[in-house]
Amino acid sequence: MAISKPVLFVGGGLALIVVVAISGQDRESSASSPTGCQVVVTADVLNARDAPGGQKIVGKYVKDAKIDAQPVVENGFRKIAEGKWVSAEFARPVEGAKCGP
Predict the structure, then answer these.
(1) Residue 6 is part of which domain span?
(2) Between β-strands 73-74 and 91-93, what pairing exists: parallel, antiparallel or unpaired?
(3) Least packed by Cβ within 10 Å: which of 25, 49, 65, 90?
(4) 71, 55, 42: which is closest to 80 by C-alpha?
(5) Structure confidence at residue 83 (pLDDT)
(6) Residue 98 belongs to a domain
(7) Residue 69 carries which DSSP code?
(8) Which segments in the chain show pLDDT lower than 70?
(9) Does 48 lie in the same domain as 88?
(10) How close are the terminal C-alpha atoms of the chain, in Å?
(11) Looking at the whole model, is its pTM more than 0.70?
């Protein structure tokens, strides 16, 4: 029994969709924070500073942005990266994140 070309084409397309969906999940998992800590910005704009309570602005994040972070909080500021700190008040850990106490 021979399979018609339209059926074969649709079946191949569905298989491709499944492969792409699975690949996307793998990329999402590997893109998660290496420290296990990720936060979401709750302010309209959140300034990143050079030190906890520092004066120099070294970056900005917009509301609902997800940021990889460190499980370190000093003087009310969460460490995002070396030389980059944000107010912990406006950077809420995402559900399931390992951001410490």
Answers:
(1) 1-31
(2) unpaired
(3) 25
(4) 71
(5) 95
(6) no
(7) E
(8) 1-33
(9) yes
(10) 64
(11) no
